[in-house]
Amino acid sequence: MYAGAAVAVDLFGHATPAGVAWLRCLGAAVVLLAWRRPPRAAGRGRRLWLAIVFGVVTAGMNVLFYEAIARLPLGTVVALEFAGPVLVAALGSRTVRDVLALVLVACGVVAIADVRIAGSFLGVAFALAAAAAWAAYILLGKRVAVDGDGIDSLAIGFAAATVVLSPLAWGTGELWSSPRWVVLGVGVGVLSTVVPYALDQVVLRRLGQARFAVLLALLPVTAGVMGFLLLGQVPSVAEALGTLAVVAGVALRSRDGVTRGAGVEPPG
Questions:
Q1: Using an 8 Å Cβ cutoff, are 114 and 101 in contact?
Q2: Which burial class, exposed, middle or buried, applies to 96 when counting CB atoms under 10 A from its CB (0-12, 13-18, 19+)?
Q3: Number of continuous H segments (helices) and E segments (strands) in the chain
Q4: What pLDDT digit, counting tens, does each position of 191-215 carry?
Q5: pTM for this prediction
Q6: Are 161 and 30 in contact (CB under 8 A)?
């Protein structure tokens, strides 16, 4: 996901962040539809509307995220965006171990963030809006995984989102002048959307929303690593300690889920 985000940052010099997000959505829709070829039953009734809402919310989250990383470091944005999964996890916490794991994760994410509000208030605002969308993504994603058609619904949702958000295509103008940039844009769709979101659907079928949300705490760690390797964004000591806290919290929560044996929690 964040290897794709690093590529997207390089494209911001040739298109608006929202335009790159729309091209990502288009690329993901084309690849998913070619791969899955959803059956007619997936495009009818309640399942259709669930898929459309899920796709538009997810694509909107991506637009907000790209607008944020155009203004703030990748690791900072992901840490701020993680407020959404933290909220979902908090609502689903049921034991002292759950709460302790959540506190460790939250403290780690704050340390990773190193937020620079004075530098870009708008960037922080976009990141927090993306956080709200990420919470909605988890809640809707669970419904799609269990009540919908999983990856088939993902394909339909992104196709619908590509149409709904088509005005953002005006921001992609310069990208179409180079086949390489177009390929990179579609590649971002595969790296940041097709692979991770398809895996999310597999995982959400087996995990409750709260445990899934805590496991997402690994994403700020991944973003920090990718920001360092691909964008030269060096983490501070506080960010390194935050990474360790996140990993400890995820390990604590994950062990708790295995101990209970069921492997699936009721929706939180």
A1: no
A2: exposed
A3: 13, 0
A4: 989 998 888 888 888 877 677 777 7
A5: 0.76
A6: no
